[in-house]
Amino acid sequence: MSGDTERKPVAARDDAVAARPALTRPAHVAVIALGCAVTMAIAAGAAWLTGQPLLAPPLGATAFLALAVPLAPSSAPRNMLYGHAIGLAAGFLALQLTGAGELPSALAHGFTFNHVLACALALMFTAAGTEGLGCSHPPAGATTLVVALGLLPAPL
Questions:
Q1: What region does 39 belong to: left with phi over 0, alpha with psi -120 to 50, or beta?
Q2: pTM
């Protein structure tokens, strides 16, 4: 092949990309780790200042996902927002349908059949909703379980 028709690497074709230095592995790790720390500090600080449950384990998974693989479809802001909103709604719906909303938290007082059913329904509703709307975000599965287990007894 002649030099004119050879395929060049993407970075070589885009001067802006080629000119931008790539992060070294330690720097990449540091950016992700510090980004996670700052994100959680902001969320925890907001929860502390408002007295509202604004920080839950699924949000840690969301922050890590967004910082570690920012170009993944599940890291898209739309998928994150819709995914967690669907997870919350599905969890509260499952609590109402099973009567588990009237019971103490499964983790604090033990599992009942109502909790088991609420967890199964909540995750099923979350998967159907996020996949049906094309906004898959795996940490939303944890959000719905936080609600279905009775750890977040009422919407904010």
A1: alpha
A2: 0.79
